[in-house]
Amino acid sequence: KPGLALLTTGVIALSAAFFALKRLPPSPLRGQAWRVFHALNLLVCGLLALVALGASSFMLFTGKAADARLPLVALAVFAAAGAWFLRLLVRKQ
């Protein structure tokens, strides 16, 4: 349930930012706003992936391999999201 809540709020925030930026008049700075948005998302996904990596490694090394499933899934999800935002950030340059 926490993952679904994070996914739902992320989709709502992304769609709100997308529609807010689309309503702005054409400007050469609009591309910079998207670059900042992608960079912030990359930073957040990277930090969450690092926390998930730390939690999963701690659980694996303490012998609780069954409890490490959720952090490993979170690591995969946030690492994939971070790679996607990195691709968007590099492509825009």
Walk me through this protein's architecture.
With about 90 residues, the chain is mainly alpha-helical. It has three helices and no strands. It has helices at about 1-25, 30-60, 70-90. Helix 2 (about 30-60) runs antiparallel to helix 3 (about 70-90). The longest helix is centred in the middle third of the chain and has 32 residues, at about 30-60. The radius of gyration is 16 Å and the shape is elongated.
Question: What characteristics describe this protein?
Answer:
93 residues, mainly alpha, 3 helices, 83% helix, elongated
- Name the shape in a single word: elongated
What's the story with the biggest beta sheet? none
Mean pLDDT: 77
Tell me the distance between the termini.
Answer: 37 Å
By secondary-structure content and strand pairing, the structural class works out as: mainly alpha
Q: Beta-strand level of the residues, as a percent range?
A: under 5%
Q: What is the H/E string?
A: HHH
Radius of gyration: 16 Å
Number of strands: 0
Assembly of the depicted chains = single chain
How many helices? The count is 3
| Helicity level | over 70%
Low-confidence stretches: none
Question: Summarize this, please?
Answer:
The protein has 3 helices and no strands. The chain has about 90 residues and is an all-alpha fold.
Helix-strand blueprint:
Layout: H1 2-23, H2 30-61, H3 69-91
Helix pairs in contact: 2-3
